[in-house]
Amino acid sequence: MRSSNPVFSRRGFSRDNGYAGFNAAPQAGAAAAGANPYAQGTANPYATNPYAQPDTQYGAPQAPARSGAMTIDDVVTRTAMTLGTVVLTAALAWALLPVDAANLGKSYGIGIGAALVAFVLAMVQSFKRKASPAVILAYAAFEGVFLGVISSAVSTYIGPGTVMQAVMGTMCVFAGVLVAYKMRWIRVTRRFYGFVMAAAMGFVLLMMVNLLFSVFGGGDGLGFRSGGLGILFGVIGIVLGACFLALDFKQVEDGVNFGAPREEAWLAAFGLTLTLVWIYLEMLRLLSILNGDD
What we know:
Blueprint: H1 6-9, E1 53-54, E2 61-62, H2 72-96, H3 104-127, H4 133-157, H5 160-182, H6 190-217, H7 227-257, H8 264-292
Antiparallel strand pairs: 1-2
């Protein structure tokens, strides 16, 4: 099974480094030693541990301790660095690129340019064979500039409290999903993955169609981003982001359990950052609609 996150969906963690994540096909006898400890019968046919080695004493495969293996602390540290870069550049963009009558065109131009560069860097990292900290941090920097400009615009034209509400909402979604995942209230199975991916593809397709109609027809296109429909699709976008987080948590957990190389923590940080940016933008859009109707 692959995560819905664009970074994870291509290959899980780096297959070249020996960890295949959810990409491996279901294995016969997955309950044997060295298999994913969360696999139960055929319900969750995850990949077997690629680091399992024969145990000469008991004759069963056993995963050796690896000094260079990824840990949760590695993921937390890299994620903090990546998100910290996003927050820092967003704050600088907010302060240096005010979205007012005098600087509207300039600020929007720089924000859109930064968004395009961030998109290119995200695609570059997604198709690289290994995680590149330089590319990931550069993506975070440009993404932060874009978020800073957008957030400044919302604060100026919608309400100064909207951005803080979106930040708090994103943090609450992250904390809620993390608790639900750790308590096993959310079970990440292949059926869960398939449902989330189908919903995500439909959601993105509808947003693309709406964008095309808005570009060529003017206004809000088909109305998916305003009024009652806008509120509905905003909620759906946030729920999808929460589902992405659950899939990403599972991917990271298996990377740690299976002994993925330490450098793969950068890939985990990159994927989690992408998902959190998704949730924040959807939260900001939803709150903008709600506050704009007041």
